[in-house]
Design brief:
Elements: E1 2-6, H1 16-23, E2 31-34, H2 41-45, E3 51-54, H3 62-67, E4 71-76, E5 79-84, H4 93-98, E6 106-108, E7 116-120, E8 123-127, E9 141-147, E10 151-157
Parallel strand pairs: 1-2, 2-3, 5-6, 6-8
Antiparallel strand pairs: 1-9, 4-5, 7-8, 9-10
Length: about 160
Amino acid sequence: MKIGVIADTHLREASPELASLLAGPFRDVEMILHAGDITELSVLEGMGEKRIQAVWGNMDSSAVRQILPGKRIIPAGNVRIGLIHGWGGPQGIEERLHKEFAGVQCVVFGHTHTPVLLRQGDLFWFNPGSFGGNWVSGKRSVGILNVNDQITGEILWL
């Protein structure tokens, strides 16, 4: 199973660049995970017909927060993925988020705008970075998760 992952879009409405993901890196994904800071619901509506699982982030409107949960667990093939935005500073974020999930093989998060691919024992941590841009470099990124016997990921720079 191939899953597209995006976080921190920070858009008020869908953009041509966001739509281009569907013809590019996300063209053959089975599902898209959005790890929050969507900002407005119209952003999700602009992502086409793909199955989307999303959570709200700290910069999301009240409309987004009313519709989406703050965290969720998504079954994908033979793994369970925890999806959450995150909070606080970047240092120690994995430790804070670890307390939010039990029985998952992967935690997908956003908030830091910095990509993370980290395996700690049986747990895979994945942050796709930010579609809206990294705070330091300004570079934008998304990710792909591949679910087979185990889960792996890759960061795609835009």
